[in-house]
Amino acid sequence: MASRGGPRAAGTDGSDFQHRERVASHYQMSVTLKSEIKKLIYTHVVLWLLLLAQMVVGHLKLLPHDQVAMPYQWEYPYLLSILPSLLGLLSFPRNNISYLVLSMISTGLFSMAPLIYGAMEMFPMAQQLYRHGKAYRFIFGFSAVSVMYLVVVVAAQVHGWQLYYSKKLLDSWFTSTQEKKKK
């Protein structure tokens, strides 16, 4: 258009470049979705560390049994839920579709399935707490079943949103891949 100190090309005022300065919408969406998924992964890591801490304290008996209860059975397979999050993070730098798909599948297997099992495992104890007001396990003075149901609800939302945003991100990546193939 114009050289560094020389004259401008005839018929232009130098402002005709603005149409090239816009970023394609699927690239903008990719950046936004990656940011949202990272926030959810970091939230998941915090929940995961809390569960890990509860399991370590319960097994090593670092605190009395009435302070921190032994873990429920669903918490053990849920520890594997860190793997899908790591796969998701690994998929971001190069928009690796296969890592993102593996992350989504393993999120269902290692994250959502243990949460569903956990809700079913704890249901009789929650029912007993609701009907009779009796709790046998405690975490820092609160009934363990109430605390763990709260964890299950929050974790299910985190993983649900993570799956939703991952699907949208996958669609965004497929859009950019299809446009590259058309060229």
UniProtKB/TrEMBL annotation:
GO cellular component terms given for this protein: endoplasmic reticulum membrane
Main localization, broad class: endoplasmic reticulum
GO biological process assignments: endoplasmic reticulum organization; granulocyte colony-stimulating factor signaling pathway; vesicle-mediated transport
Keywords recorded for this protein, A-Z: Endoplasmic reticulum, Membrane, Transmembrane, Transmembrane helix
Nucleotide-binding is among the record's keywords: no
Cellular localization per UniProt: Endoplasmic reticulum membrane
Membrane topology: Multi-pass membrane protein
Keyword Metal-binding: no
Transmembrane segments: 40-62, 99-118, 138-158
Xref: InterPro entries: Jagunal
Family classification: Belongs to the jagunal family.
Protein name: Protein jagunal homolog 1
